[in-house]
Amino acid sequence: MDILIITGLSGSGKSQVGNILEDIGYYCIDNIPPALIPIFAEMSLRLNQFNKIAVVTDLRAGSLFDSFFECVDELRRMEVEYHILFLDANDETLARRFRETKRAHPLSVNSDSPIINAIKNERTALSRVRESADYYIDTTYMTSLQLREMVLSIFLENSNDSLKVTCISFGFKYGIPPESNIVMDVRFLANPFYNDDLKEKSGLDSYVYNYVFSFDEANSFYEKFKNLVDSLLPLYKNEGKNHLVISVGCTGGRHRSVSIIHKISIYIESIGYPVFVIHRDIGKMI
């Protein structure tokens, strides 16, 4: 039996992730106090009913959430395999989501505190939980489809029990993806943005892609990057890591980073690793 504990900031998409996991065979429980997780695990073991369980637990449980680490210690004593997935988003995005849904933040229900203060207080309260997480997903710039694809890339069973790699292109002007394990900056490459024929296109367009790799600097960088990936992936795999996030950034996340990620992701897949690609900022306005 494998238990996935989903937690994180309110409004970050935890319930949505639970729904996605349910679609691929997990038995999911939303808003369960931590103390009940070992009890449910024990019952499931006794009945031999569920192989994969996902539980959402967070500060909606109030003071009951204080037992979170006692819960995971108990699961460890029971020799139940578990992992923790932490969902996050930046403060402004979380505040906007609450305004749009007209729902109250759990820490502002009985308080006159502004929503942004409630979010900051929750972030502080969950800091230790975040540090203990096995998986981390920042949903700030993700569409519902991108979130679904990323969750499936991590948790959908694959006959190849290999290290799974997520490759993200992004724009530094919008921030570095917080879930990144490896970050490369390609702002030193020639920028197609300043070519009027290429400005409106993206790195997935052959004209932009060919332009980026028409320069020796791009090809030299790519070969060194590929060699680095070659050397690191087996080391991460041997260390027992099951998910690696490689991010490449340029200024706006539309041209250079997209081209590099497109090429390196094809290579990583060719050497036997499951790959999921996110071009996070490709659709942003220029």
Would you summarize the structure shown here?
This protein is an alpha/beta fold.
Question: What are its keywords?
Answer:
286 residues; alpha/beta; Rossmann fold; 2 domains; five-stranded parallel sheet; four-stranded parallel sheet; globular
Can you walk through the features of this model?
- This protein has 286 residues and is of the alpha/beta class.
- The protein has two domains: 2-155, P-loop containing nucleotide triphosphate hydrolases (Rossmann fold, 3-Layer(aba) Sandwich), CATH 3.40.50; 164-279, no CATH class.
- It contains ten helices and nine strands.
- Strands 2-3-1-4-5 form a five-stranded parallel beta sheet, sandwiched between helices. Strands 7-8-6-9 form a four-stranded parallel beta sheet, sandwiched between helices.
- Helix 2 links the parallel strand 2 (27-29) and strand 3.
- It is globular.
- The N and C termini lie far apart (48 Å).
- The model has no long low-confidence stretch (mean pLDDT 92).
